[in-house]
Amino acid sequence: MSSPIDEYFDAALELVKSSGNLIKDHVTGCKVFELKSCDIDFVTEIDKKVEQTLIDGLSEKFPSHKFIGEESVADGAKCILTDDPTWVIDPVDGTMNFVHGFPHSCISLGLVINKISVAGIIYNPILEQLFTAKKGQGAFLNGRQIHVSQVKELRNALIAFEAGTSRDEERTKIVFENYKQIVSKGHGVRSLGSAALNMAMVALGGADANFEFGIHAWDVAAGDIIVREAGGVCIDPAGGPFDILSRRVLCAATPELAQEISKVLCQYYPERD
């Protein structure tokens, strides 16, 4: 017998797949964009259309549900997370990639209940990568179950890591220091340009860990449940419990790897969502 989460998820998945067509229409890039917080933080009309499509469709089916959307917050909406079912939306994660035509952008949609992610969808329509998870039911890529790697030591780990979309001088220094630490101690570093897709790579077992400072709830809500359902862990980069509103994340294949990385990282604490 299906649960309410199954019903919510099925409706969301249909909407996400449909919204993906808006991104597919710009496979070679989207040259019309606006600046947000700085000269490398972009928004396009497609971001806004995808988010509105998801909010309208889900609101119609589930009128009592709440929403936290990247573009709605950018336009002045409050980022408030209660215990109620809340859809946390990044309509185009990897907007810089989307603008340039680099094919690693995705729709990231997480369902959070009682402040915990219980379902997640990460969809890259350009490469037809559909990552999904529901609490207690495993994680999947295009319908095939996926699992994290079993890497326990940084010296054997491939780490997904981003510079981010901030010119803040203090944060930039920490990014460079952490890059140096990971390059000197790990197997290597990879950057897809999308927080959600980096987390999906951990769930897939392609990367062994991913961390970032300065992300938002909409970047990680879906990735959190997908990584956990694939057998991995999500924690705070300092080693404590993960907080979806903290703008900090460290996910890894194993608790041992997560804790080792947390001891190596230079920490940065952005203003909370």
Task: List key phrases describing it.
single chain; 273 residues; seven-stranded mixed beta sheet; five-stranded mixed beta sheet; 8 helices; hydrolase; Inositol_monophosphatase_CS
What does this structure look like?
Belongs to the inositol monophosphatase superfamily. Keywords: Hydrolase, Magnesium, Metal-binding. This is Inositol-1-monophosphatase. With 273 residues, the chain is of the alpha+beta class. Helices cover 36% and strands 24% of the residues. It is built from 8 helices and 14 strands. The protein has helices at residues 4-24, 45-61, 70-74, 95-100, 169-185, 195-204, 217-229, 255-264, and strands at residues 34-35, 42-43, 66-69, 86-93, 106-113, 116-124, 129-134, 139-141, 144-146, 158-161, 188-190, 209-213, 233-235, 248-252. The strands form 3 sheets. The chain has a 7-stranded mixed beta sheet, with helices on both faces. A 5-stranded mixed beta sheet has the order 11-10-12-14-13, with helices on both faces. A hairpin with a 2-residue loop joins β8 (139-141) and β9 (144-146). α1 (4-24) runs antiparallel to α2 (45-61) and α6 packs parallel to α7. It is globular and about 50 Å long. 47% of the residues are buried. The model has no long low-confidence stretch (mean pLDDT 93).
